[in-house]
UniProtKB/TrEMBL annotation:
PANTHER family: PHOSPHATIDYLINOSITOL 3-KINASE CATALYTIC SUBUNIT TYPE 3 (PTHR10048:SF7), PHOSPHATIDYLINOSITOL KINASE (PTHR10048). Residues 171-375 form the PIK helical domain. Residues 452-735 form the PI3K/PI4K catalytic domain. GO terms for molecular function: 1-phosphatidylinositol-3-kinase activity; ATP binding. GO terms for cellular component: endosome; peroxisome; phagophore assembly site; phosphatidylinositol 3-kinase complex, class III, type I; phosphatidylinositol 3-kinase complex, class III, type II. This is Phosphatidylinositol 3-kinase VPS34.
C-alpha cells in the first residue's frame, strides 16, 4: 500500500486493500501486486466507499432526511456487491489528521540543519547532503527528511498567541490559582535552573503572572514563559510585571538572569540592580563569573565571524552602538572595582586573561579594560592603583620569562636552582628589593617588599614550576586579613609560579571551594577549609599560593601514618581521646577531611591519589591539582566520594568517635550545599564558554553533571540516605591504583 495518494497527500481514515491470492507480494514502488483495484469500472464497492469518504470529509452537503435514505440504499448495495464478488479485501484504519500532510521529499542535495545547542560561540556545522544514489543500496528503504523538524509548530504558535492575546490586558489581574494550580506552580518554582518548562507550564505561569511576584523564587521561571518574539507580550513582561518583584530576588536568580538565556536589556539591568546590594566581599566571590557574563552583553562580538578586522573608526562606532544597548554590567563592575583595591586587582587580571584569549570577545574585553584604566586615572587613589597594576604586570612578566628559560634549559635541576637564586638576588633585576611595597596579584591583601632568594627553589615536576618566597611588608596584618587563602603566620609569603599549564580550571575549582565554604559558614558550619589562592595570569601560566605541608604519600613513607606526623608538633599525652594529638588539631583534621570530601564530590574531582592529598602540621587537610573535574578520572571505577584509607586510620578507624563525627559533618555539609544548589549551578553555567578544559569537552552536560550530585529529584531525607551509601562505598581498587601510582612516581624520580 502506498502511504501517499496521487495528490501527494498522506492517506487518512479507512483504506480498502485488494488481496492477490496465491501471488507473492511485490514491495517495489512499481509493484505488480498493487493494493488498489486495477479495473475501476467494475468496482462498484470502491465507488460507493469513495462517496462515503467524501461525505465524512464534508465534501458533500448534509441533508438529514435524505442522508438516512441514502445510507440504507448504500448498505443494501454493499451487501449485494459483496455477495456477487469473488475478490477479498483487507480493511486498514489509518490515523486521521485535521490538516493534509503533503509529501515533499526531493531527490536532491539537502542541507540538514544541526540540532539547536545554546553555545556562546557557535561554529558553522558541516553540511550533510544526501547524494542522488543514497538509497540505491536498499531498494525497499528510503529516508524521508523533514525540513521543519527543528522549527516550532505554527499551529501551536498561533494557539499560544490567541490564548495569550486574550490575557494581555489587566483582565486577569485579580486571578488567583486554586489548590491544584498552586501546587503545580510551587513544583515549577522548585525546578533547577536547567529544567525546561512544558507548554502547559508556561501557559500556567502566564495565566497567573500578576500574582507570581509573591513568591521571590518565581522570577526566572516567569521570564522563561515569556514569548520574547512577541513585542506586546515582551513590553508587558518587562515594563509592568518585572518591577513587581522589587528587591526580593535572590543573588542566585540575579546571576541566572545574566546568562545567555536572558538577552533583554531591561531584564539584565534588573539583575545588575540586585547586584548593587551585595558588598565587596560577596561580589568578589562571583567576580569570575560576572566577568564571563560580560560576553552576553555585547552582541557585536558574539556574532562577529568575519575574517577581516574592521578599521579603527568602524570598531569605535560599533562599540558605541553596543554600549548603548547593554545592561550596565561593565560599568557597574568598573565603578565597584575602582573604589576597592582588592576588587580592582582581581578584576584587572580576569580582564587580562580574556584579552589574551583568541576569541571575538577579546576585543570587547580590551575595550572594557581600557575604560577601567581611564576610570582609575580620574582620582589620585586610582592613579596609584593603576601604577600598582602596572608593577604587578612587570613582576609577572619577569617571572614568566625566567620560568620559561628554566623549563627550556638543559642544565641539571640543582644548577637551575643556583642560577635562579643568583638572578633573584641580583639588584639590577629589581627583585631583591622593591622601591615601594607591592600588593601581590595572587592576593591583594598581602604587600611584599622583596624576593627572598635563599628560600626560592624549583620543583621536580615536569614543568619545573618556580617556588618564589616574598618578604611581606606587614606579616602580622597579612596573617589576620588573609581571607583569600590559608592563613600565613610567617613574615614570608611563598608563591608557586607555573609556566606551560592552564590554571583556569584550578582557579575555578578553588573559587567554588571558597564560595561553598562561605555558604557553609552562613549555616554555622566551620569545616576549617581555608582554600589556598590561585590566579591564572594567562592561558598558559599563573600563580599558586604555596602552603607549607606534606603529601600523604610522603608522610606515610617517612612516619608510617598520619597520626605520627601530627604528633611531631602537636603532641598531647593527656589527650587520650585524640590519640595523643592536641584536640584542636584532631578536630581541624576531621572537619577539613569532611569538607573536602563533600566539595570534591560535588564538583566531581578526579585523579585523587596520595600525592595530591596534602596535610599541614596544624591538621589542615586539603587537595591540590585539579586537572580532572566533572567526573573525569584517568583511573577506572573511581569512588564518587574521595575518602582514602589513610584518612580513616588517622581518625581511629570506622568504629571510632572521630569517624562518626566525620560522617555527621559530611551529611550536614551536603545538606547545606544542597540548599544552595541553584547558586552553584548558575555559577557553573556562566563558565560554560570560559575555555575551562573539562567543561569544553561536554559543555552541554557540564551543569547537569554538577546538578546530579545534589540529587534534587529526591527529598532531603532520601538524598542523605543515598549520599550515605556513596560515602560508605569504599573501593579496594583505589588502594591498588595508589600503589601503582607510588611505583610510577618512584621510577620517575
Amino acid at each position: 500500500m502506498a502511504l501517499f495518494d496521487h495528490h501527494r497527500t498522506l492517506k487518512r481514515g479507512q483504506q480498502r486493500l485488494y488481496i492477490h491470492r496465491g501471488v507473492e507480494a511485490d514491495p517495489r514502488p512499481n509493484s505488480t501486486t498493487p493494493s488498489e483495484v486495477l479495473n475501476r469500472e467494475d468496482d462498484e464497492m470502491g465507488r460507493l466507499e469513495s462517496l462515503i469518504k467524501e461525505f465524512d470529509r464534508g465534501d458533500i452537503n448534509k441533508v438529514e432526511w435524505l442522508d438516512r435514505l441514502a445510507f440504507r440504499k448504500l448498505e443494501k448495495a454493499h451487501l449485494r456487491e459483496a455477495s456477487k464478488s469473488k475478490d477479498m479485501y483487507l480493511y486498514v484504519d489509518l490515523p486521521k489528521f485535521d490538516f493534509p500532510v503533503v509529501y515533499s521529499e526531493q531527490e536532491s542535495l539537502l542541507s540538514v540543519p544541526p540540532a539547536p545547542v545554546a553555545h556562546l560561540f557557535p561554529t558553522i556545522p558541516p553540511v550533510l547532503a544526501l547524494p542522488p544514489n543514497f538509497l540505491s543500496s536498499d531498494r525497499h528503504l528510503w529516508r524521508a527528511y523533514d525540513p521543519d523538524a527543528w522549527r516550532d509548530n505554527p499551529v501551536e504558535i498561533k494557539h499560544r498567541k490567541l490564548l495569550r492575546s486574550q490575557r494581555l490586558g489587566d483582565a486577569g489581574k485579580d486571578l488567583k490559582p486554586g489548590p491544584s494550580d498552586r501546587d503545580r506552580l510551587n513544583d515549577i518554582f522548585r525546578l533547577p535552573p536547567t529544567a525546561s518548562l512544558s507548554a502547559f507550564d508556561k501557559d500556567l505561569l502566564w495565566k497567573f503572572r500578576f500574582s507570581l511576584f509573591r513568591s521571590p523564587r518565581s522570577l526566572t521561571k516567569f521570564l522563561k514563559c515569556v514569548t520574547w518574539s512577541d513585542p506586546v507580550e515582551t513590553k508587558q513582561a518587562v515594563e509592568k510585571l518585572l518591577p513587581l518583584w522589587g528587591q526580593d530576588v535572590g543573588i542566585d536568580d540575579a546571576l541566572e538572569l545574566l546568562g545567555p538565556e536572558f538577552m533583554h536589556k531591561k531584564v539584565r539591568a534588573f539583575a545588575v540592580k540586585r547586584l548593587e546590594r551585595a558588598d565587596d566581599e560577596e561580589l568578589l566571590l562571583y567576580l569570575l563569573q560576572l566577568v564571563q557574563a560580560l560576553k552576553f552583553e555585547h552582541k557585536y562580538f558574539l556574532s562577529s565571524q568575519r575574517p577581516h578586522k574592521p578599521r579603527a573608526h568602524q570598531l569605535k562606532r560599533q562599540l558605541s552602538q553596543d554600549e548603548a544597548s547593554d545592561s550596565g554590567l561593565s560599568q557597574f563592575l568598573i565603578d565597584r572595582s575602582v573604589s576597592n583595591p582588592i576588587l580592582s586587582t582581581r578584576f584587572h587580571w580576569y580582564l587580562m586573561i580574556e584579552c589574551d584569549s583568541r576569541v571575538p570577545a577579546g576585543r570587547m574585553y580590551a575595550k572594557i579594560a581600557h575604560d577601567f584604566m581611564n576610570k582609575l586615572s580620574q582620582s589620585p587613589e586610582g592613579t596609584a592603583q593603576r601604577e600598582v597594576l602596572r608593577r604587578q604586570g612587570v613582576l609577572v612578566q619577569t617571572l614568566s620569562t625566567r620560568a620559561r628559560e628554566v623549563r627550556l634549559s638543559k642544565d641539571p635541576r640543582q644548577k637551575k636552582i643556583e642560577k635562579l637564586k643568583a638572578y633573584l638576588s641580583d639588584p639590577k633585576n629589581g627583585l631583591s628589593s622593591f622601591a615601594e611595597p607591592l600588593t601581590l596579584p595572587l592576593n591583594a591583601r598581602v604587600s611584599v617588599t622583596s624576593v627572598v632568594a635563599e628560600k626560592s627553589s624549583i620543583f621536580k615536576s615536569n614543568l619545573l614550576p618556580l617556588l618564589i618566597w616574598f618578604e611581606t611588608a606587614e606579616p602580622n596584618r597579612a596573617a589576620e586579613d588573609d581571607s583569600e587563602g590559608i592563613v600565613n603566620i610567617s613574615p614570608d609569603y611563598p608563591v608557586i609560579f607555573k609556566n606551560g599549564d592552564d590554571l583556569r580550571q584550578d582557579q575555578l575549582v578553588i573559587q567554588l571551594f571558597t564560595l561553598m565554604d562561605r555558604l557553609l559558614r552562613k549555616e554555622n558550619l566551620d569545616l576549617r577549609l581555608s582554600p589556598y589562592s590561585v590566579l591564572a595570569t594567562s592561558t598558559s601560566e599563573g600563580l599558586i599560593q604555596f602552603v607549607p605541608s606534606k603529601s600523604v604519600a610522603s608522610i606515610m613513607a617517612e612516619h608510617g601514618n598520619l597520626q605520627n606526623y601530627l604528633k611531631l608538633e602537636h603532641s598531647d599525652d593527656a589527650a587520650l581521646g585524640s590519640y595523643g594529638i592536641e584536640a584542636g588539631v584532631m578536630d581541624t583534621f576531621v572537619r577539613s577531611c569532611a569538607g573536602y570530601s563533600v566539595l570534591t564530590y560535588v564538583l566531581g574531582v578526579g585523579d585523587r591519589h596520595l600525592d595530591n592529598l596534602m596535610l599541614a602540621p596544624d591538621g589542615h587537610f586539603f587537595h591540590v591539582d585539579f586537572g580532572y573535574i566533572l567526573g573525569r578520572d584517568p583511573k577506572p571505577y573511581p569512588p564518587p566520594v574521595k575518602v582514602c584509607k589513610e584518612m580513616v586510620d588517622a581518625m581511629g578507624g570506622t568504629g571510632s568517635a572521630h569517624y562518626s563525627r566525620f560522617q555527621s559533618l559530611c551529611y550536614t555539609a551536603f545538606t547545606g550545599l544542597r540548599k544552595n544548589a541553584n547558586l552553584i549551578l548558575n555559577l557553573v553555567a556562566l563558565m560554560v564558554d570560559a575555555g575551562i578544559q573539562d567543561i569544553q569537552l561536554e559543555p552541554d552536560k557540564a551543569v547537569w553533571k554538577v546538578q546530579e550530585k545534589f540529587m534534587l529529584d529526591l527529598s532531603e531525607e532520601d538524598a542523605i540516605k543515598q549520599f550515605e551509601v556513596l560515602l560508605n562505598d569504599t573501593s579496594y581498587l583505589t588502594v591498588v591504583f595508589d600503589r601503582i601510582h607510588d611505583w610510577a612516581q618512584y621510577l620517575r624520580d
